[in-house]
Amino acid sequence: MRARNYIDRALASISPLIRKVESAGAESAFPTEGAFAEQYLKTYRPHDAQVSLANAMVTNRFVVVVAGRRSGKTYGGGREFLKRIVRDFNAARDRGEVWTPPATISKETKPHLWYWCVAPTYALGIYQRREIFEVLGGVDSPLILRYSSSENALWLRGGILIEFKTADNPLRLVGSGLHGAWLDEAARIKAATWEDNLRPALSDRLGWSLFTTTPLGKNWVYQDLWDVEREGFANVHFRTVDNTSLPHLVKEVEEARGTLSRAVFKRNYEASFDAFEGKIFESYLDDATHVVRSLPVIYRRFAGIDWGHSNPGSQIEIGLSVDGYLYAYREDYVRELPLTPPPNSLGVDAWTNRFQAARDRGVDHAWADPSEPSNIILCRQRKLDVRRADNSVNPGIDLLATLLKPVMRADGVLRPTLYIHESCENLRRELASYRWDDKTGKPVKQDDHSVDALRYGVYTEAKKNRLFVTKEIADKLGFDAFELAA
Question: What is the separation, in whole angstroms, between the first and last Cα of the chain?
């Protein structure tokens, strides 16, 4: 709820977009394609890849845009989505279909044309709303009959209903008879949500769909939409450098190439499905590049925890040095260790004993796997500062990969930001062997307990406290204000 309130305030600051508009007895007229372009798309100067998108939207039912960051995919997607709706309306008018507006538009009003904008989460869906309202000119646009932020429903003249949906609860995606849909960041939406909820909603009217996304490996977007040759399907590829409206991106891309890991760069800037293949931490070398025998002065200590029983559990202690480098310097890696010692027992090992020992060594707090909330509660009852970690897998991996990549420092020496102490043998082994599943684009779930613990600690500490992550790195990795507020 706090994130939603934050986003609503952010939208309100952009323009008067979130003001509720009621309009009764509205006209059914809607502009022609030419008139709409002349009045509402005057400033739209599509780059070559966006022109390809525009052409694909004319003749294809399913159009997939796979794009790099800052490439203009959502900007172009919003405009082509609205252009397609205008085209639909004019085609219906040419067939003699007319919508008679009711005295008052309500939730029960049946639309003439019905569309969904779908995003993985409410926070990500804000970008779709922003682009649509920017084109229309805000809530005071003469094309808008009514907008309800509580209902997430936008009514346009002519009986056009655009609803804003999120895919985090597929059970809410109930409907049929859609004329079209726009799925933004489609790769973050589950395949079952498309197959079981969204695709059937388009079937009655043979509705169309626009997909815009940054790739996340060869998941369902690649397998079911991109790597197919079927009538009515079209693919459009945007790289970041294709966005010629922002000339400075050429330099930005080259800087990112030298800063980010290869996989993160290929995904975020080249929109490559092949980014998630092979070794995950390509830059990690189990030698003096990353492995240290001694520690500098550490001024802040925290930990990451991955619970385990039949599988090993792991606690990684992490330190931040006074000159801004991270050190994973101690590892607890144990199988079948109980969380707490049995009652009235002395000298019996348990995870809470080890967490207490870490605190005695100066660890201020620990970020733990959130999948076992009862474990976290029990630790806190014992006065151990164990907190719920952020388990965002790909963003966490992106950050670790970036911190492990050696970059040129001011003294002319290539150095990573994250080092591993030689005593952390299991962590070193896992960093060297951690791999992508080439088919799913997800990490192979094997020998990842210390890596997960490290990810929980480093990613959550960076996100919550903004330590050891510069604004430039945060921008390249996609740490935007909405994600941080969540």
Answer: 9
251 by DSSP, 3-state: which? helix
Q: What is the four-CA torsion angle of 419, 304, 479, 292, rounded to 10 degrees?
A: 0
The verdict on residue 55 lying in a domain is yes
Long-range pairs for 367-376 at CB < 8 Å and ≥24 separation? 367/302, 367/303, 367/304, 367/305, 367/456, 367/457, 367/460, 367/461, 368/304, 368/305, 368/306, 368/307, 368/456, 369/305, 369/306, 369/307, 369/452, 369/453, 369/456, 371/307, 372/307, 375/307, 375/339
Spatial distance between the Cα atoms of 134 and 335, rounded to a whole number of angstroms: 55
Cα–Cα distance measured from residue 164 to residue 183, given in angstroms and rounded to the nearest whole number = 10
Bridge pairing between strands 160-166 and 153-156: antiparallel
Which residue's entry shows tokens 């510069």?
A: 470
Give all strands of the β-sheet with 160-166 in edge-to-edge order. Answer: 144-148, 153-156, 160-166, 113-119, 180-184, 208-213, 62-67, 233-238
Same structural domain for residues 352 and 205?
A: no
Mean pLDDT of 440-465: 89
Residues 327 and 451 in one domain: yes
In a domain, 273, yes or no: no
Residue 268 included in any domain = no
189-240, pLDDT tens digit by residue? Answer: 989 899 998 999 999 999 999 999 998 878 889 889 998 888 999 999 999 9
User: How is residue 450 written in tokens?
Assistant: 């210390």
- Find out whether 397 and 451 touch, Cβ atoms under 8 Å: no
Dihedral of alpha carbons 203, 199, 28, 59, sign: negative
The CATH number that applies at residue 201 is 3.40.50.300
The sign of the torsion formed by the CA atoms of 249, 250, 251, 253 equals: positive
The Cα 450–Cα 457 span in angstroms is: 11
SS3 label, residue 272: coil
Q: Is residue 169 part of a domain?
A: yes
| Joined tokens for residue 159 | 């009986």
In this prediction, residue 486 carries a pLDDT of 26
Q: Can you give the pTM of this predicted structure? A: 0.68
Domain extent, residue 82, equals 2-242
CA–CA separation, 270 and 214 (whole Å): 9
Q: How far is the C-alpha of 302 from the C-alpha of 368, rounded, in Å?
A: 11
The residue to which tokens 């079927």 are assigned:
230
Q: Would you call 95 exposed, middle or buried from its count of C-beta atoms within 10 A (0-12, 13-18, 19+)? A: exposed
CA dihedral 437, 439, 442, 443 (to 10 degrees): 0
Q: Are 234 and 313 found together in one domain?
A: no
